[in-house]
Amino acid sequence: MLETNAKKNTIKNIVFDFGDIFIDLDKLASMRLIHKEFPEFTLNQDIINTNNEYEKGIISTTNFIESYKKSLPNISDERLKEIWNAIILKIPTHRLAFIEELSQKGNYELFLLSNTNELHIEQVIKNNGLKSYHRFKNCFNKFYLSHEIKFRKPNRDIFEFVLNDNNITPGETLFIDDTLEHINTAKQMGFHTWNLIPGKEDITELFSKDYPFKD
Predict the structure, then answer these.
(1) Per-residue pLDDT for 6 more than 70?
(2) Neighbouring C-alpha atoms within 13 Å toward the C-beta of 119
(3) CB within 8 Å of 45: residues ≥ 6 apart
(4) Fewest beta carbons within 10 Å, which of 15, 25, 58, 93?
(5) Which region, left, alpha or beta, applies to residue 80 given φ > 0 means left and ψ of -120 to 50 means alpha?
(6) Cα–chain-centroid distance for residue 208?
(7) Superkingdom, according to UniProt (predicted)?
(8) What class is the 2-24+91-208 domain?
(9) What is the pLDDT of residue 160?
(10) How far is 177 from 203, CA to CA, in rounded Å?
(11) What is the mean pLDDT of residues 30-51?
(12) What is the pLDDT of residues 175-198, one digit of tens each?
């Protein structure tokens, strides 16, 4: 689903999410594996808070693992990492080619804005190779990972950080994400938005959408 800013300002900047926009994810993989080994496990508010703190870089990987082990008795650190990282798949070559071509044309300022964490980024590099990861990263003017900048979506402060850090305005910026909650915050702030639906839409279809792109 796509929506455009009411002012119809020309888009000069594009802010992309990462997961299920460029890299494929299996979002249910970790819970499937946990429940296979620990059927009684429940995702309570304390665990959700731990996940959010880890995404914001507030707690270290070591503290994150120790926190989970309280709910998963006798699990090894390595097995926990395997389960946690099972969500991460690969960046399809057609999407890498798309963002490389868009970057090379130089018509837009390109930004990546991802809720992620240290372990997941390590797995991204492992699955895709360091060379491909750097090819991807180098396509963007700025590459914002939540655990590095200490903000996370859908909070307004992460969008304000990107705007202020680059001296850009929401009315000239398109934000693309597969999570409606994130889209809603951006929309309220005046961004153009595309709530991309994984499996039904692909980022390579971007310029077939009815946005006020530059000629």
Answers:
(1) no
(2) 21
(3) none
(4) 93
(5) alpha
(6) 22
(7) Bacteria
(8) alpha beta
(9) 98
(10) 10
(11) 95
(12) 999 999 999 999 999 999 999 999
Phi-psi sector, 8: left (phi>0), alpha (psi -120 to 50), beta:
left
Write out pLDDT tens, residues 60-119: 999 999 999 999 989 999 999 999 999 999 999 999 999 999 999 999 999 999 999 999
Query: What token pair was written down for 99?
Result: 């963002």
Across 122-151, b (16+ Cβ under 10 Å) vs e yields ebbbebbeeebbebbeebbeebbbbbebeb
Pick from 32, 21, 55: nearest CA to 201: 21
Longest distance between any two alpha carbons in the chain, whole Å: 59
Nearest to 90 by CA among 134, 139, 123: 123
**Separation between Cα atoms, residue 59 and residue 54, nearest integer Å:** 5
Six-digit token string for 146: 């939540």
Domain boundaries, the chain: 2-24+91-208, 29-85
The confidence score (pLDDT) of residue 199 equals: 96
